[in-house]
Amino acid sequence: MITDRTIEPRDVPLGGLRGLRVHRTLPSRPLPTIGAWCFVDHFGPTGAPMVEVLPHPHTGLQTVTWPLEGSIRHRDSLGSDVVLRPGELNLMTSGDGVSHSEFSDPGPMHGIQLWVALPEHRRHGPADFEHHPDLPRVGGDGWEGVVLVGRFGGGESRATVHTPLVGVELRLQPGRHVFELDSAFEYGVLAVDGDATVAGQPVAQRALHYLAPGRAALAIEVERPTLVMLLGGEPFEEEIVMWWNFIGRTHEEVVAAREQWQALDPRFGRVEGHDGVVIPAPPLPRVRLTPRTRRD
């Protein structure tokens, strides 16, 4: 089993975003998932807004969008048309196939984009979309939290997930804070806007610290007011093949999804308001896609 470690972010230019670069910590080479969380992008703070992410497809996953500053207009092939603001959550379940677009208002942008891998029993189902403007707020001495998914600190989110999972925004005042954990879960702590000490280990801003299952409590120390994201879940045992915006189980599944998207197959529907313009899929690599595995 993989042991506790810190994952440094890598700088990634995001296609379709004008001048916007993101700091990606998951997936990483040694660690493809934390629970079913399979993708963590931290974008901003930046004055270069996410002006246009044209329609693009997804399979086999849920997108979890959490803005910290700025607003994002979400439209999808289900007919959803929602403006997402800080403190609100968008949760889109791709099932077997969905497409969506995201446009931001002018101004500063800062936020977290997360993906959750869907388990076998749900990944072939219909697509769905949820907008949660009122999430549970929890807190204690020197800290406040918002529960995006799952249960934490006496609060439980109504957001729908399909494996045991938790996601929490924590705003910490200077000092040492101890949180109860589910010992069956593995966890990751993302230091969003400042350095932190997580379980005794220094974690630089934007890095993600991984904690293996078996821990019933966690101490986080900060020297100034700091925001961190706590992500966790039961280890996701299913092997996944992840490429571009698709999650499948085999190379052939991903190739088929790409071909269908390029052909504007009805599998992915249509996002209204873009005159049929979409983001084309990039070329496939010249190697066979294989499942992502953990490497200690």
Automatic annotation (TrEMBL):
<dbReference type="InterPro" id="IPR008778">
    <property type="entry name" value="Pirin_C_dom"/>
</dbReference>
<dbReference type="InterPro" id="IPR012093">
    <property type="entry name" value="Pirin"/>
</dbReference>
<dbReference type="Pfam" id="PF05726">
    <property type="entry name" value="Pirin_C"/>
</dbReference>
<dbReference type="Pfam" id="PF02678">
    <property type="entry name" value="Pirin"/>
</dbReference>
<feature type="domain" description="Pirin N-terminal">
    <location>
        <begin position="21"/>
        <end position="116"/>
    </location>
</feature>
<dbReference type="InterPro" id="IPR011051">
    <property type="entry name" value="RmlC_Cupin_sf"/>
</dbReference>
<dbReference type="InterPro" id="IPR014710">
    <property type="entry name" value="RmlC-like_jellyroll"/>
</dbReference>
<dbReference type="InterPro" id="IPR003829">
    <property type="entry name" value="Pirin_N_dom"/>
</dbReference>
<comment type="similarity">
    <text>Belongs to the pirin family.</text>
</comment>
<feature type="domain" description="Pirin C-terminal">
    <location>
        <begin position="168"/>
        <end position="263"/>
    </location>
</feature>
<protein>
    <submittedName>
        <fullName>Pirin family protein</fullName>
    </submittedName>
</protein>
